[in-house]
Amino acid sequence: MLEIKLSPFNLKECEDFYKSNNVKFSRYDIAQSYMIFGGIPYYMGYINPTRSLAQNVDQLFFKKNAVLRDEYNRLFASIFVNPDAVKNIVQLLYTRNAGFTRKEIVEKLGITDGGRLSRNLNALISSDFIIKYVPFGCGKREEHYKLIDPFCMFYLHFILNQKKISEKFWQQNVTSAAVSIWRGFAFENVCFNHIEQIKRALGISGVITETSAWSKKEDDTEGTQIDLLISRNDNVINMCEIKYYSDEFKVNKEYYLKLLKRQTILTESVSPKVVIHSTLITTFGLSLNEHSGAFSSVIVLDDLFKDE
């Protein structure tokens, strides 16, 4: 018996899918739908073209007997032999954006470091729920496992352990601070899932690269966390800041100084021959002012929709 791995749609494929189903969403909303449905056509197929994205989210997740309300549990039960053990791993990885080492997973879950854990981690990787990567500046022994599945992240953030939620939760909270903060983290995940599009926008498609998140400390108390690092074999590192905004992003003096601090800390951690390029990945571009020169390149949402 042959198996065919079906990967989730990217943003451009999501756009094409919606168009074929007469769903008229802006790219701003398509990106948000990706943060929720993860580019899975089965979930996207439930979208009602006559409703807004917010109305659809309420219909599919928050109304009584919503069709996707229990999908998280059904999904793991249908894919994995040990769904509870796998869900425990996923729910742990969700708690830290940069992920955890295998040793940390064993310690925090109180489980045995053996073949069963290896099988569960490999199954999660092969199913596109998580990735394994080495954080910048770390050795092979410090490999991290990071949750990248948007559907799981959305469910764990807004639905799991919520005993009572309004049937119009999303419509009522779509402009709330809590949802805005979630969008920020979720957009980082969108970018991690569209590295090839980011490289193409930077003009480095043919350059060998390694990508990771990076933080000087486990807890980013001094603002030294970097959303995405693209380390290139041409002695350049793109230090990427990721911002999901409804308008052009504006750099104020405080943020400008924070960027300079991050670049200084990163510079101290790399070879003198390496050049650091500050890169902004955002929705609608950069507002020009006296501090906007902090970024040497800007990637916008439209760039993430380009396949070629």
Rounded to an integer in angstroms, the radius of gyration calculated over CA atoms is 20 Å
Strand content: 5-15%
Low-confidence stretches: none
Structural class: alpha/beta
End-to-end Cα distance: 34 Å
Q: Helix fraction?
A: 40-55%
* CA-based shape: globular
For the record, the count of structural domains works out to 3
Mean pLDDT: 92
What name is given to the CATH topology of the largest domain?
A: Trna Endonuclease, Chain: A, domain 1
Order of helices and strands: HHHHHHEHHEEHHHHEEEEHEEEH
Q: Counting H and I runs of at least 4 residues, what is the number of helices?
A: 14
How many strand segments?
Answer: 10
Q: Order of strands across the biggest sheet? A: 4-5-6-8-10
CATH class of the largest domain: Alpha Beta
CATH architecture of the largest domain: 3-Layer(aba) Sandwich
The description of the largest β-sheet is: 5 strands, mixed
Can you offer a commentary on this structure?
This protein is an alpha/beta fold. The chain folds into 3 domains: 87 residues, no CATH class; 82 residues, Arc Repressor Mutant, subunit A (Orthogonal Bundle); 108 residues, 3-Layer(aba) Sandwich (Trna Endonuclease, Chain: A, domain 1). The protein has 14 helices and 10 strands. It has a 5-stranded mixed β-sheet with strand order 4-5-6-8-10, sandwiched between helices. The chain has a 3-stranded antiparallel β-sheet with strand order 1-3-2. A two-stranded parallel ribbon has the order 7-9. It starts with 10 loop residues before the first helix and ends with a helix.
